[in-house]
Structures are given as structure tokens and as C-alpha cells.
Amino acid sequence: MRVAVIGGGPGGLYAAVLLKRLDPAREITVWERNAPDDTFGFGVVLSDETLGGIEHADPEVYRALQAEFVRWDDIDIVHRGRTLTSGGHGFAALGRRRLLAVLHRRCRDLGVDLRFRTEAPPAAELARTHDLVIAADGVHSATRTARADAFRPQLTTHRCRYIWLAADFALDAFRFEIAETEHGVVQLHAYPFAGPSPAPRHPGAPPSGTAEGTLGASTVIVEMREEVWRAAGLDRCDERESAEWCAKVFTDALRGRSLRSNNSSWTAFRTVVNDRWSHGNTVLLGDAAHTAHFSIGSGTKLAVEDALALAACLQEQPDTARALAAYEEERRPVVASTQRAARASLAWFEELATYLGQPAHQFAFNLLTRSRRVTHDNLRLRDPGFVAAVEHEAGTPSGTPPMFTPFRLGELTLRNRVVVSPMDMYSAADGDGTPGDFHLVHLGARALGGAGLVMTEMVCVSPEGRITPGCTGLYAPEHETAWRRVTDFVHTSAPGTAIGVQLGHSGRKGSTRLMWEGIDQPLQDGNWPLVAPSALPYRAGVNQIPHALSADGLHTVREQFVRAAQSAARAGFDLLELHCAHGYLLSGFLSPLTNHRTDAYGGDLTGRLRFPLEVFDAVRAVWPAGRPMTVRISATDWADGGTTADDAVAIARAFAEHGADAIDVSTGQVVPDERPDYGRSYQTPFADRIRNTLGVPVIAVGALSSWDDVNSLVLAGRADLCALARPHLYDPHWTLHAAAEQGYAGPGAVWPLPYQAGSRTPPTGRTDAPKPRLTLR
Predict the structure, then answer these.
(1) Which PANTHER family match (predicted)?
(2) Could you tell me if 448 and 728 are in contact, meaning their C-beta atoms sit under 8 angstroms apart?
(3) Nearest 5°: phi and psi at 194?
(4) Alpha carbon 451 to chain centroid, angstroms
(5) Res 432 pLDDT > 60
(6) Which of 315, 534, 578, 723 has the fewest Cβ atoms surrounding its Cβ within 10 A?
(7) What's the CA gap between 444 and 487, in Å, rounded?
(8) Is the separation of the CB atoms in 569 and 622 below 8 Å?
(9) Is 510 helix (H, G, I), strand (E, B) or coil?
């Protein structure tokens, strides 16, 4: 088997090592256009997981790397002159030159042909003369560019500029430092990669002083928003001037020392995603296939793990085609998860200025949990003292998880931060919009389950405003009576739990079948006419074309919302939410993809906001003053030309200025060709940005599945309330069980008297078996 490797970075070299070691008969050539000791960057971080894979696959490489590693446990966070330290993190790093030297030596020992200072022939040419071509040619991959039609890359350039530099001494912790300059916020990411491992130290202790000749080296990355970079004049600075500027800003962190560069330049990070990683016998590896922002330290890690997986699949599969398919199938979910974490971390640093006003410990906790991979519970295991200090600063009572602290909306105090999210049930009896026994049991059970707030499904304000014949309403006297039965049960049988109603109108997404009969599919018969901001069907050729609302139609809809709100107040609901999300009628006005009007209710965002705000104002005027009112929005359409995150902030600001007590921040479902970035808590960054930009309370939603997620979001100040849907379908008593699992019993999670005997986790098997009295070795 003849193998060509394009690119002599860690991923390409390690792939060559593994393939040659597994089959010495393979003829493997690595092309690298630079000299052996040329490298652009300084230190490389690898996780224990990656090192374990290397140890298993090639103990010799592992031993060589192990001898080079600098290890440390602490992270220092410096913010407004105060240093906070969190321990227990377990990093390992070494110089990139040393990593490459180890791999070069191993390649030569195994007989890999290394060709330095040699440009590789094009991948298409190599593919004709080799059995396998591994394109490890980096973020600017020529291979990927040449066959963009096959790999279908999506390249996203982000909003910060950064530069890689080095300091000639070893820091004794990973260091994040924030500098507030006259031009804007600048951040430093720095860690040791050469020299003796830093000695363990107590949180807050000063760096150890050793002789300068033995201090080793540290990677120093300086990053800032593009507009800050330009305002500081760094776009006009050369390499030396840039290094001097950075050293001056972070003189305390560097102990007055200078910074050195190595062909260092200011760069905007680029996220690379490919629809396919292989074409014929050519396969992408490492940054050519995918990138992850440096703030989570996974670039080299991903490339090395790619090499491990590729070598294993080639060994396990009967031919190259199936091996490349298996490689992509194995690695794609792992990479996608890492890229989601990296994007969350990247976005956090892009919006860093919005967090500067947070208390010191909350800011540090927010930074540490920014990627959502480190959580409240995980960090408590690593450094319980640090988490206790964060909770103390936040005023969290001792022994109380953050999710079980109260929160006040208007005159309503919620006993905890858990919300049962609105979920359409499509179960109204006889198709007339009346809630029945199902709704009493469904909502009653979740109220008994301990959540602070239970929300109804979207309750429709008119018959033609229904999504399906099974949707509930508040447009007839019998609806009000039926809902009163539900609210009375909640207030009587689950005292302390609030119940809210979500009012909405389906707009162009109405007159469809029940979800399990075909979601968003039109009824086979009995359809009713639809209205919308513009005459645009949800799916062209599938859903009916709605009528664009006239002035009279706008007045009618507004009055329908008012009457429904008055009815909801009489029915005893504690909170009202106006549904302006998910492509329903009011959401349709907000998105430029669904609002093509040319009158005062269309055009720019001010025009598109006009009708939703008119409805809000009219509802707010009749809704009891002491009861809170919230608004659910779609913070992005996940589609080109649609609502953006910046628009979402402006929309939230407008509703807050009109009296909304909180913004319920969801995303998408506005157009059928959306491309959501699914993943755990994937929608929360939008809520986070609104909360910390505007200071308005937010409800976070979107794939929140664990009490650890809720604790993390609340304590970090990214959300005030967390709405969970599917977890409450799986377990109506999710909140009470979360309390039991955390060993909490207090006012934030009150078990109903008939259920108190079940307030402890049942044993799953015998746990009192006698222990062995004697062990023989």
C-alpha cells in the first residue's frame, strides 16, 4: 500500500507513524513545504484522554512525549486587578517543536520518507499513483479548496483578532487575564509549555521565583474584537511592534519581560466544517477537515485523535473505501461535539465585554464553564472550595443548589428556577379547543413534580388561529371554565407552584394535522383559511397560501389577543406569555424571511416590530398589573437573511421597554429550510447575550436535560430561569428528583404531602453486604 501524506504537522506525522507501525510493508511519504524546525506556534496542549490513546497505540511515542510534558492543575483568572484561582484541572503541554521532533524521529526509525522543503504534488495527481492520500494540509488546505465541489466546505470567519507569542519563562498556572484599555477589552490566554512542571500552590499564592535560566517558556495568546484591534492601531503594526504592545498591556502577567514572536501575525479565527471528509481515496485530517477555537485547546488533540481513528479503521475494514467511511462515521460526532463547545467558548470571548460587570467569582465561574463542558457539578468535584466561594458571593444559602433559589418576576415569586416549558399536546377534546381531563392530569402532574412555574401549551386566541384541530384555545366561555379547573387544581394541590398561559396564533403554520399524523402537513379535509403578515406559504406547494392581513384583519387579531388575555386572567393564571416565536403569526411579523410587507408593518426591524408591540401593549393593558408578562422569541431563524442574534437583542430590548418582565429565548422553526446547530443547551448563548447585554431577565430553553445544566446557567448568570420540555415528558417529577439526587430538602423543592414517603432515592440493590475481613495478596 502506497500512502501519501500532505502536510507535516502533528496529525499527518502521527498518521504516518501509526500506519507504518501497523504494517511495515506500507510505503509512506510525507511532504512538508517547510524546514523540519519551522513551526508557527509555541506550546501544544493534549488531554489525558488523548495521551491514553497514544500510549495504547504507540508506547514509544508516548514515553518520548511524557518526558517532555509540563503539567499543571491551576487556572488563574485576573479581572479588574483581582486574581482568582481554580484548581484540579489537569493540563499537559509541550513545545510544538519538541512534539514535531519526537514524531520526526519516530517516522525515521520506522522508515517513513520525510520530504521537507518540498511542495506536495496536487492531491488529484497523488491519488493516481497512491492507494491513499491523507490531506493534513491545515486550515488553508489546498486539497480541500481544489475539490470544494466534493468536500463542500463551509468557512466562517469570526469577530476577534488574535496573535500567538511566547514568553521565556514558565507560568505556574493557565492564566486568563482581562485588560480594559482605552480602546476596548483585550484578553490574554497563557500557559507554560517548556521547563520544569510548576509546583503545586495554594489558590492566590504568588508565582514561585526561580533563576531566570531555568524558567522555561509559556505560550501567550492575545485576543480582542476586530474594532478594538483597529482602534489600537494594531492593524498598522509590524510583528515586533505588536509583541511590544502586548507585553506592555500585560506587563504584570509577564513580570515585566518581553514577548517573542515567530512569524506571528494577527489572525481572525476561521471555523472549518465539511459536508464530506473523503473523496475517492483522498481523506481530510485535522484542520483541513475541521477547526476548533484555540480557547478550548483542541486543535492538535483533534488531529492526533483523527490519526488514531483513521489508522484503526484502515486496520479493521476490508478496503480503503469502507475504512474512510468508518473513519468519518466514528469521528464526525466527536468533532461536532467539540466544535459546538469551541463555538460556545469563542462566542463567550467575543461578547466578553458584556460580562465585565459581574461579581468577581461569578465572572470566573462563567469563564470556566463557558464551553458547557465544564459544569457546576464537574467544577465542584475539581475544586469544591472555589465553587463554594462562587455560591457564597451569589447569596446562595449553604447546602442549596443554585436551581433551588427563588426568583421574583413582577409580584410573583417563583420558589425555584425550573420551568415546565410550553409543549403542544394536540389533545383538545372534540377539536373545539376545550382542554379536558388530559390537560388536568398532564399539567397537574408536572405541577406536583416541583417546578417553580408550569406553562400551558400555546393556547390559541381564535378558531382560525389553531395549529391543529387538537389545539386548545381561550376564545369561548367553556374554555375559560375548563382552564379554571386546571389552575384551581395547581393552586390547591401544588401550593407554591405557579401556572402560566402562553397565548398565540398559528398564522401561516395553521390548519395542519396532529403532530403524530404528519407534522406541518395540511389537513386532508376540513381546512380553515390562514392569515399571515404576507401571502407566503410555510412550504410552497404543500401548505396553503395565507391571506396577508389587512388593516381590519390586524385590528381583529389584536382584539382576539385582548379577549383571550382577559379570559386568562379570570381563569386564574399567574403569568401570561405572548408567543412571538417559531414562525407563528407574531413571529412571522418579526422575521424578514416571512414579512415582505411594504406598509408600516414591514420593512426594517422597527416596522416589523410594530404589530407584535401593539399586541403586547394591548394585552399588557388588560392583564392584571401585579401578574408578570413574558415574551417568547426566536433569537435566530438559522437561515440566511433571517433574524440574527443582533436583531434578537433589539427585539428583546423593545419588548422590555414596553414592560415585558422576562424574555423567553428560543430559536428557529420559522422557515422549513433552517439549519440549526443542534446540541446540548445549544440555544442558551442567545439568552445569555440578551441577559448580559440588556440586563433583562431571561428564560433559557433548548436541549437542557440535566439539573447540572440548570445549576451552571443560573450560577454563571447566563439565565434566570431554565425551561425544560422533554425531560418533563420523561419524568413529570423531574424537579423533585433533581432535589433528591443532590441531597437537597428545602423550600425550593417541596414534596406534596402524599408523596413525601418517596422523597428519597429508592435503593437499587443490597448495599449492606459484609465487607471482606481479610485480603490475601
Answers:
(1) BLR3436 PROTEIN, NADPH DEHYDROGENASE C23G7.10C-RELATED
(2) no
(3) -145, 150
(4) 24
(5) yes
(6) 315
(7) 9
(8) yes
(9) coil
> In whole angstroms, what is the distance from residue 611 CA to residue 663 CA?
18
Task: Write down the pLDDT at residue 766.
Answer: 61
Going by C-alpha positions, the residue among 32, 40, 38 that lies closest to residue 16 is: 32
pLDDT attached to residue 50 = 74
Write out pLDDT tens, residues 32-59: 999 887 777 788 887 777 777 788 888 8
Q: Name, in order, each residue with C-beta under 8 angstroms of 762's C-beta and a sequence gap of 6 or more.
A: none
Alpha-carbon torsion (384, 750, 454, 449), positive or negative: positive
Residue the block writes with cell 502533528: 10
Termini Cα distance of the chain? 49
Range in 154-168, 199-213, 313-327, 617-631 with the lowest mean pLDDT: 199-213
pLDDT (0 to 100) of residue 91: 82
Cβ-proximal residues to 155 (8 Å cutoff; 6+ apart), any chain? 270, 271, 272
In whole angstroms, give the CA distance from residue 229 to residue 701: 34
Q: Which residues are catalytic?
A: 584
d(C-alpha 452, C-alpha 66), whole Å: 51
**Cell (9 digits) for 746:** 428545602
pLDDT of residue 526: 87
Could you tell me if 511 and 527 are in contact, meaning their C-beta atoms sit under 8 angstroms apart? yes
Q: Report whether 495 contacts 486 (CB < 8 A).
A: no
Burial letters 614-645, b for 16+ CB under 10 A, else e: bbbeebbeebbeebbbbbbbbbbbbbeebbee
Give CA–CA dist 418/227, Å, rounded.
39
Per the structure block, which three cell numbers stand in for 531? 392569515
Cβ atoms of 221 and 294 within 8 Å: the answer is yes
Provide the sign of the torsion angle of the four alpha carbons 103, 108, 110, 114, taken in this order: positive
Alpha-carbon distance of 80 to 356, in angstroms, equals: 9
More confident residue, 75 or 767: 75
Distance between CA 24 and CA 644 in Å, rounded? 54
Dihedral sign, CA of 16, 20, 22, 26? Answer: positive
Residue 204's pLDDT is what? 45
Q: Give the pLDDT confidence of 254-267 residue by residue, as tens digits.
A: 999 999 998 899 99
Measuring CA to CA, which residue among 390, 479, 487 is closest to residue 430? 479
CB contact set of 772 (below 8 Å; sequence gap of 6+): none
Buried b (16+ CB within 10 A) or exposed e, 726-759: ebbeeebbbbbbbbbebebbeebbbbbeeeeeee
CA 253 – CA 660 distance, rounded (Å): 44
Q: What is the pLDDT of residue 196?
A: 55
Evaluate whether 311 touches 18 at the Cβ level (below 8 Å): yes
What 8-state DSSP symbol labels residue 352? G
For the chain, give the mean pLDDT. Answer: 92
